[in-house]
Amino acid sequence: MCDERLSRGAVCPLLLPTPRRHLPRGLRRHEWARSIECRVTAFQTGSSFSAPQASDNPPAIILGGGDIAVPVARSLGSAGIDVHALGTTPDPIRHSRYCAAFTDLGAGQGVQERWLEWLQHGPRGAVILPCNDDGLELVARNRQTLLELGYRPVEGRDDVMLAMLDKGRTYELARRAGLETPRSIEVRTNKDIDAAAGDSTYPCALKPLHSHLFAKRSGTDAKLLVVHDRSALESGLTRLLGLGLEMMVTEIIPGGEDQLFDYHSYIDRNGEPLFHFTARKLRQFSIHFGIACYRVGEWIPDVAEESLRFLQGAGLRGLAYVEWKRDARDGRLKLIECNHRFTPLGPLMERSGIDLPLLVYNQVVGRPGPPVDSYRRGLHLWDPEKDVRAFLAYRSRNEITLAQWLRSLLHRQTLPIFRWNDPRPTVAYCLRLFVRAARVLTGRSRISRGTPEHWKAENRQLAEP
Residue 81 domain-assigned? Predict the structure, then answer.
């Protein structure tokens, strides 16, 4: 039985990293006070005291992640750890005061090869933390090379990491553990299309087996495409397979957005969880089949139990995220996906009292803590830009009114990127939105034939109704 409160011993501040001088003044005072407290304790007990220096903290290298990477950098940078980020031009992390160095290596095809080339000359001894699937795949396929170069890759079993990047394999592991998944058919070649079309009920969803490859090659940020008849399914699969993608045709589990649940944990070397964190989605964008733009932290016991059952059954070690949906037909949880890395839940977990990036970092370097005895519940994570767009889409379908939307926001909100002591990532993000909107309004945003954007425009009939 999972327990929301896990008994963990307190960690002496001596074992935690020491901040650098350039950190915000309030943080320096806090760490100075902790150092004095430990000095007093050492004097009273007669033990020796030797405060760790910034040089004792191996640097951290963040691989990709976009917005997800920002709270990771803030957590580690606040603890006095040099953060090196590899990303692309629009990434807000490049503007964060907690990012010691940013290298623009682009995204898309060949990004893993470019990262590996950079790592040939990167800071030795650094902890490597993937914030997207490309980073995770790089670690899983090149762990031995990274170790030989002197790096410390994030903890995990590489075969399980790769399995979690393949939704077909993920579902197979879930069913082997006795858990339920959506009814699905894998489509890896053109020969599989007829069987999938004949066995599917409509509407159904076309879902990529490898999400990071789908994002690169299709030019859409959608998680899946919904089709309403056999003709749309066949044409959609033919086009997607032509892009070198492997797909899955899956049933659409009935139920609202508020029946989608998240679980985060860290499974140690003995297969035991260091904490449990659960949350409920409230709205998504794109609506019904997109990414959460509003969610709340709640303790949901059966989500924690089923998630731990899946993770231990799969043999996963390290950082883990599991998504579920409760089926409106029978009330049972169905596995949606599992990610072996940091996710957009980071700011909500931080606000709730779980410093996940520092916990992961300390596990890699062999330090204890920070301990997680409990966390605050009922806190909300709100993405204003995406939620406004979601509201307009929901209202166009008469699924929500303005009054209902406003009432749902009458809580103290946690924002994905904004922090008063580190505002530049938010400023850069808003400027990018402004420029994008201006291009659309002035007609300067063009879609060229043959580009992924053109493919996306041609296939709007495959998107959700």
Answer: yes
Residue with tokens 């400027």: 431
DSSP SS3 for 409 = coil
Those residues with Cβ within 8 angstroms of residue 327's Cβ, 6 or more apart along the chain or in another chain: 180, 253, 254, 255, 333, 334
Task: Flag residues of the chain having pLDDT under 50.
Answer: 1-54, 446-465
User: Nearest-5° angle of CA 237, CA 242, CA 246?
Assistant: 60
d(CA 53, CA 45): 23
Distance CA 249, CA 186 (A): 6
- Give me the CATH number covering residue 63: 3.40.50.720
Q: Note the pLDDT of residue 30.
A: 39
298 by Cβ neighbours in 10 Å (0-12 / 13-18 / 19+) ranks as middle
In a domain? residue 241: no
- The DSSP code sequence of 138-196 is HHHHHHHHHHHTT-EEPP--HHHHHHHTSHHHHHHHHHHTT-----EEEE-SGGGHHHH
What total of structural domains would you count in the chain?
1
Strand partners, 206: 225, 249
- The residues, any chain, with a CB within 8 Å of residue 44's CB and separated by 6 or more, are none
Q: Which residues contact 240 (CB under 8 A, 6 or more apart)?
A: 206, 208, 218, 247
Residue at 401 is within a domain: no
Q: Which domain holds residue 115?
A: 13-158
Please list the alpha-helical segments (H only) found in 227-367: 230-242, 301-314, 346-352, 356-365
Residue 446 sits at φ, ψ, to 5 deg, of -115, 150
Within-domain flag for 429: no
